[in-house]
Amino acid sequence: ILKGFGAKSVLTTTSARDAAQLVLNQQIDVLFCDMSLPDISGFDLIRGLRMDKKNPRRAIPMLMTMGLATSSSVRLARQVGANMVLRKPVSPNAVFDRLDWIAWSPREFCDLSDYYGPDRRVRNDGNRTGKGRRQSDVSEDDIDRLFDVARQETE
User: Fold this and answer.
1) Cα 37 to Cα 13, 24, 118, 130, 135, distances in angstroms
2) Averaged pLDDT, 36-44
3) C-alpha 71: how far from chain center
């Protein structure tokens, strides 16, 4: 799928330990991992990569694939720092949509004692420029008014 999108190099492995070494030793732009790997889980792989302060690529997009995407497994993937979850079988459209979302609507990263990764609060209202689900979200009109006030105060 990735080569079909024009990726020049796609590295693959079946081991979480090998994947961790690839991320640490290669220039990796994005990581896809399954939640069920033979040596350690995909959850542990992502958590380990995200929490390793010495890992220079701990902020790359990390997407997790899973055959049975239960609400608890999706929640756990988000809790360990996965940017997105893809349910298998993975389609080219789903991969493109997730990569497009990550590229054009990146979320801020949280650096906490027990979590490093994208802000887990996701606006998914179908309109990436629209108002989200949080009551604290500010409308574009409110933002424009705030900028107008700030400009007037500096004049």
Assistant:
1) 10, 18, 23, 38, 39
2) 92
3) 17
Neighbours of 21 (CB within 10 A): 12
> How is residue 103 written in tokens?
């590229």
How many degrees, rounded to 5, is the angle at CA 138 between CA 155 and CA 141?
55
3-state secondary structure of 62: strand
Q: What span, in angstroms and rounded, lies between the C-alpha atoms of 44 and 68? A: 18
Task: For residues 77 and 7, give the distance between their C-alpha atoms in angstroms, rounded to a whole number.
Answer: 25
Mean confidence (pLDDT) of the chain: 84
Tens of pLDDT, residue by residue over 51-104, are 999 999 999 999 999 998 889 999 999 999 999 999 999 999 999 999 998 888
Q: Of 126, 118, 76, 73, give the one whose Cα is nearest residue 97.
A: 126
